[in-house]
Structure formats: C-alpha cells, structure tokens
Amino acid sequence: MKSSTSGIFQTALHNFEMSAKRLKLDEAIQHKIEEPRERIELTLSPILPNGKVITVKAFVVRHNEALGPSKGGIRMSPEVTLDDVSGLSMEMTWKTALIDVPFGGGKSGIKADPTKLSPNEKEVIIRSFTRGAKRHIGPEIYIPAPDMGTNELDMAHIRDCISYSEGISITKGCFVTGKPVILGGIVGRREATGKGVVQTILAMCQKLGLDMNDMRVAIQGFGNVGAISAVEVTKHGAKVVAVADICGGVAKPDGLDIEALMQHVKEKGCVKRFKDAKAFDGGRIFDIDCDILIPAATGSQITMKNADKIKAKFIAEGANAPTTPEGDAILRKRHIPVIPDILCNAGGVFVSYLEYTQETQHEQMTLAEVERRLSDRMKKRFNEVFDFAREKRLTMREAAMDIAVSKVVEAIFTRGLLP
Ligand code: NAD
Hints:
The protein has helices spanning 7-22, 27-34, 82-99, 119-133, 152-166, 189-208, 224-235, 258-268, 325-333, 341-344, 347-361, 367-392, 396-415, and strands spanning 38-44, 56-64, 70-71, 74-76, 104-110, 142-143, 216-220, 239-245, 248-251, 278-280, 292-295, 314-316, 338-339.
C-alpha cells in the first residue's frame, strides 16, 4: 500500500501516521486501521447509445467499518485511480467519526470524463457501474452519494438500477444518498456541503475576531461545493473576489456577481469568458490577495510550490485532501490556520445521514429542520476541534485527526478484536 504514487492517498496516510504517532497507537492496530477492509477494481463494458462498446475502470473501497457501514461519494473523473479512492475512503472514516454519524469510510470512483459525456452516455456508465458494484452496495455495506463529477440524477439512476435488478421498487433501506427529493432524497442535501463549509467559516471568523463584511474570498472549483460556498459567503456579507475552475480563473476586486457567474457556468460549462471580470490563469488562484481561501476542486492543490504565496488569513478546505503534507508544513510555519477537510466539508455526509434516517422512517424532514441540524452540528464540532487544538497546541488538522482516530480506535476495542 505504501508504494502508492497517488497524492491523495499519500496525504491521507501521512495524516493518519502522524496522528497514530501522537496517540502512541500500537503498531498492529495502526496496521489494521491503515489497510482497507475491501479494495475492488472493476472493468465495465457498457454499450453506449450509439452502439459502441467501451471499457471503463471503476473502483470501490470500504476502508473501516468499526462505526457502521461504509459511506462516501462516487467520483467520476478521467484521472481517478484506485489509490485516490483508497485515500478518500480513509478520509471518510475520519470524517464520519468526527461529525458523529454511525458510518465507516468508503468511496468509489469511475474513470471517465463527465464533461465529455452526453446525459445518455453518463446514465449508461452509471448503470453499468451499479450492476458491476451491486454486491458491494447496500444499506449495511456501502452507501454511495455524489462527489466530484456526479450528481443527484446519477444517484436516481443507481437507485432505479438496483430496484430494477431486484424486480421490486425498493422502498426499504437506503442504498444511496443525495437522491432527488421525489425518490426519497432529503431537501437541502445538494447544498449541504457548501453550507457546512460556510458554517465553519463563520465559526472561525468568530474565534479570530474577523467581521464577515470585511472578508474577501477566493475559491478554487465552482461546482457543487465551490458555487454553494460562494452563494453562502456573499449571503453573510463577504465578497468573492476570485474564482478558478478547470478552464481558468476570473477575478473582480470589488466582488463577483455570483448568481450571474452561476448562470454563465450553466450555459458555457465553466467560468472562462465571464464578462465584467478579469481573466487569470486558474493555477494562480493561490496567489490572489484575499482573506479566506476555499479550495473546493480536487486533491493535492496546495503544495510546496504555492503554499508560501498564499495571502489568506485562513483556509477552509471544501475539497478532500487539497493540501499536501509539504504544503501543510509551510502553512503551519506561516501561521495560516486551516479548517481541515474532514471537518470543513463534513456537512454533506451529515445531511446524507439525515437522509438515511428519513428513509428508514418514511418521513420527510423540512428544510428548516435540516438546516438547523446541519448548522448546530457543524458549529459544535468546529468548536470542539478548535478548542482541543488550542488546549493541546496542535493545528486544527492534527486536533481533528486525533479526535476522529481515537473514536475509531475506541470503537474497534469496544466491539472486540477477534481472538
Ligand atoms: P463538482 O464536480 O461539482 O465540481 C468540481 C469543480 O472543480 C468544477 O468547477 C471543476 O471545473 C473544478 N476543478 C476540477 N479539477 C480542477 C483543477 N485541477 N483545477 C481547478 N479546478 C478544478 O465537484 P464537487 O461535488 O463540488 O466536489 C468538489 C470537491 O469537494 C471534491 O474534492 C470533493 O471530493 C469534495 N466534496 C464534495 C462533497 C459533495 O457533497 N459534493 C462533499 C464533501 C467533499
């Protein structure tokens, strides 16, 4: 496992190993936790609507189930690897423990480019993945959700495909979260991750004595997490001064019109050529003069090459594993606090948990109830991590990791190790 070249995997492993050292974990227990419970590589051969048969690789990793069944999103990207999915699934183990939901860590990946697929082609690939991975999906096994490159319609197709293959309309048990509301989804799930990110930003500003009305925000990634974070920070008085996505960056020092930018992305597919803003090379988002930086794209973006250029007062990790260990060390030296991914973007899995409970109870929660519970949980966990970090003189990432790893270790011992 350690020979991996995946940045995401190396980051997840490094953060765990550092925590294991601080917690003085027994070597055998450390090894047990490091290794995923199940790591599967699938070769799919879907027939596209034009009659062409293609080959698509897909991965499912269930990392640790001491606290409950595996939970984690499906990433669709041409770059995703089995090692990335392993790293992301390990992250989910800590995230679910930290945010206190009865799940373990899981993740899956489909190696395809969603930006180059027609809706019909994407549906065929999603259904092919569901058939291929069906043995590994279920309310007590692994419950997928949207992640980078997938959305609620994809979750609807997964649910339909499972119902279809069982020959019944599944209403009992939650096989997948992040579904459309009409199919048992929960109101507010699509916005939950971004809203949760901003709850942690508000809590951080309060702790640091910063006024949101003075905050200038730069965001990398303008998909689900990035765009919702942009909407929410502006609602709370901040200005979004720069946004970058896979095509490039757009900046406006007195604040971008976020609704208009969202409309532009809907029509053109990315932020490039948005009028009334200055274009810049997207990779330079980390040089932008801002107060809060939100990486909300992909992994390994803040590195030894750019961490010393960051001007933000703090960083809120909307993306998973956006900071490499080398980048993290530089931020630490420069006293730039980081709200770590396993805390910052945990709002999505928290509301997925609400969807899971709602589905077993056959009752719909209201948006007000979902938002109140999300906000309460994010603030509570933020304060717990922030205070623990202060007390133990740790970074927030170290504090979050130590709290989460301790919970998983306690669950392992409480369940009992096999003789
Ligand atoms: P998305 O597919 O909706 O959007 C991804 C965005 O990132 C797009 O704007 C894309 O152009 C941009 N992007 C991708 N690669 C990039 C690169 N190399 N440089 C610059 N921009 C790039 O994905 P999402 O659901 O918003 O997820 C974004 C991140 O948040 C991922 O790391 C994901 O794992 C994490 N996350 C998502 C959720 C969720 O509920 N969707 C929950 C927790 C964490």
